[in-house]
Amino acid sequence: MSIDETRITRAILAAALRDWEEISSVDVAIVGAGPSGMAAAYYLSRGGLRTVVFERRLGFGGGIGGGAMFLHKIVVEPPADEVLRDVGARYAEVEGAPGLLVLDAAELMAKLASSALDAGTKIVHGVSVEDVIFRRDPLRVAGVVVNWTASELSGLHVDPLFVSSRAVVDATGHDASVVEVASRKVPELGIELRGERSAYSELSESLVVEGAGEVAPGLYACGMAVARVRGLPRMGPIFGAMLLSGRKVALEIAGRLGAGRTTP
Ligand code: 48F
Hints:
Helix 2 (about 35-45) runs parallel beside helix 9, helix 7 crosses helix 8 (about 225-230) and helix 7 (about 200-210) runs parallel beside helix 9 (about 240-255). The protein has about 260 residues and is an alpha/beta fold. The strands form two sheets. Strands 1, 2, 6, 7, 8, 9, 10 and 11 form an eight-stranded mixed sheet that branches. Strands 3-5-4 form a three-stranded antiparallel sheet. Helices cover about 40% and strands about 25% of the residues. It has helices at about 5-25, 35-45, 80-85, 105-120, 150-155, 175-185, 200-210, 225-230, 240-255, and strands at about 25-30, 50-55, 75, 90-95, 100-105, 120-125, 125-135, 140-150, 160-170, 215, 220. The structure holds ligand 48F. One of its GO terms (biological process) is thiamine diphosphate biosynthetic process. Pathway: Cofactor biosynthesis; thiamine diphosphate biosynthesis.
């Protein structure tokens, strides 16, 4: 078989453009492939909603990969073990610390990503969300403005593309960069960014899950983005609230948009 370079190029172009055409209008656009974004993507796709994840870097997992100070273990507490079992991630109880579960960072990243992909999520790497689309009557966030991360880094003036969606999820972590841009550039949404507070792990683990949800019509937050938006403490290297807040946002969106099998 001869491998002609032009055929390689055309195969990639045709498949990529087909995908981009599909994702130019979706049910849910998730920004960030960290633990909260991947958990949300998994449950949304499992419920039958057309879901895309835009991730500015070239990998999965966000803060999972670095563990705590580069130690390759992740700590989670119940009931987040329900999510671990749903995605097939193996974990162990921590000796002498009842209620804490430990697992490999690589295991969590890989299983979250493969479960979301198997459920039908489309994940696009190297793409940054730089803005939102908004509409009036009724006032709402109606999609995201995307560009290659490479364009952003180059400093060249390259105009973006648009993706319309029925819901946008900010899963960008500590920056809450999507909610931040919406609060600044669509002031009529009335979003107040209260800013993340110092560490208080136990409190933050429950408040982040409680606070996850709709921030403005059409715009949702999960994971550490919730801490910046709602003025909550950080919790450091414990990941239960990331998984549970992602699941909570998915269930809330599925309830609003109408989806089938998202319920855990
Ligand atoms: O930071 P990240 O892991 O967010 P998370 O899901 O989890 C936080 C924990 O990792 C940890 C913690 C709790 O235990 O404190 O930090 O809330 O993942 C966020 C992902 O979003 C990407 C970023 O590269 C990362 O992979 N991201 C951020 N901004 C953008 C983005 C953007 N504007 N466009 C696309 N991707």
